[in-house]
Amino acid sequence: QVQLVESGGGLVQAGGSLRLSCAASGRTFSMHAMGWFRQAPGKEREFVAGINWRGDSTYYADSVKGRSSISRDNAKNTVYLRMNSLKPEDTAVYYCAASRDYFGTHYMAGDEFAYWGQGTQVTVSS
C-alpha cells in the first residue's frame, strides 16, 4: 500500500513556475513508477508526466514537454513536478499516482496506476 499526499499548488501568473511535491508513505515507494495527472473542470483526467522506479527514465505529455520536469527522491519517498512557462490551460487539479506493478516504466494510462493522492489545485491567471 502506498499513500500519497500532494502539495505545492496555488495561484500563479501565466509565464510563472511551480513545483509540485508528492510525499508517499509505505515501504514500496521506490519500487513503483510514478506519474502526474491533471483534470480540468469539465474535462477528462489526462496524463502529464511519468518517471520509472529508479528515476532514470522520464516521459511527458506533448502539452507539457520542454517546460516540465519530473523527478523523484527515493530516500525521501517524494516525487516532484516542476512546471515552467505556465499557461492558463495548465489550470487543473494535479494528482500524483503510483503504478500498480513494480519496476515498470512508461505507464501513462490511468488504470496502470493503483494509488492516487487527493490532488492539489493549480490555477494559472492570464
Brief write-up:
The protein is 0% helix and 53% strand.
What characteristics describe this protein?
single chain, 126 residues, mainly beta, seven-stranded mixed beta sheet, four-stranded antiparallel beta sheet, 11 strands, globular
Kindly describe this structure.
The structure is a single chain. The chain has 126 residues and is mainly beta. The chain contains no helices and eleven strands. Strands 2, 4, 5, 6, 9, 10 and 11 form a seven-stranded mixed sheet that branches. A four-stranded antiparallel sheet has the order 1-3-8-7, with no helix packed on it.
Roughly what fraction of the amino acids lie in strands? over 45%
Uncertain regions spanning at least 5 consecutive residues: none
Shape: globular
Q: Structural class, judged by helices and strands?
A: mainly beta
- State the helix count: 0
Number of strands: 11
What is the arithmetic mean of pLDDT?
Answer: 96
> Element order, helices and strands?
EEEEEEEEEEE
The description of the largest β-sheet is: 7 strands, mixed
Helix content: under 10%
The end-to-end distance, rounded to whole angstroms, is 40 Å
Instruction: State the oligomer.
Output: single chain
